[in-house]
Amino acid sequence: IRPIIIDTDPSPDDAVAFLMALASPDELEVLALTTVGGNVPLALTTRNALMALELAGRGDVPVYAGAAGPLMGALRTAEHVHGATGFDGYDLPPPGLRAAEGFAPDRIVELVMARPKGSVTLCCLAPLTNVALAMGREPRLAEHLHGIVLMGGARAEGGNITPAAEYNIHVDPEAAARIFASGVPITMIPLDCTHQALTTQARMARLRAIGTPLAEAFYHLLLFNKDYNARQWGTDGGPLHDPTVIAALLRPDLFSGRLAHVGIECHGALTRGMTVIDWWGVSGEAANALVLNRLDAEGYFDLVIERLSRFGRA
Ligand code: BDR
Ligand code: CA
Fold first, then answer.
1. Among 7, 75, 84, 91, whose Cα sits 20 to 30 Å from the Cα of 51?
2. Given the CA of residue 151, which atom of ligand 1 is nearest to it?
3. Which domain of life is it from (predicted)?
């Protein structure tokens, strides 16, 4: 059973990801959720994490709040995608749960270093600020981790927040650069992969057909985002980005990709936050990430539906 920490800025796709992990106790042990400012400000990402845990009856999982904004500059949120709360589309009751004591980067260090070397995996679903801060606090952190699996970046697909950059990397490129230079084994899931994971009408119908209150809530939460994407891009559904991180742990056979060197552009006026992926090995730089670019989308949604259906019929 693999111990993991999930760093997240909940919009609904983040929540589906950590709920899938919590529904997989035979494979994954979730040590904590850590929240960061991202899609919406930190107070809301933390609140959304707590609301989703409460809905799932999983108040036993600690949630630690972390950085409110990136290492440099102001936070760029994405209310246009997920609504003002980050959880628009369904009214969940305000959470009775509270965040646990402690600053997320400190807790990441403690939780990882308390375990044997090479055991804990960080699952990163958000701007990488908390992880970069944790590495800054404990220089041995990178070599103590089993690895990092992150949703972020783009290769041929182009960006979703600027023409060049994907949101999670664009918000805090300095943090991303630190992580990609750290030597930690990284599995990177860029937009090239997640844009194959569309919440089509048929898949949304399967989600709703689970028939639990949790499934009904996520049907509506994801519908909000789906409608945004349909308006924006004319696709049947929107990308269900972040659960790919958990799926890659549970079912690596659903993915394929290649080892490559990934550089993070921190300076370009047009390209800040771009992930420069040496797909063809022209730079001579050693690979620092496994970049997953292909997904068995049907198998992925089968897994998502199966894991979400494990939450009770309260
Ligand atoms: C990323 O941005 C967020 O909106 C999603 O949760 C995902 O982590 C996709 O660019
Ligand atoms: Ca996210």
1. 75
2. 8
3. Bacteria
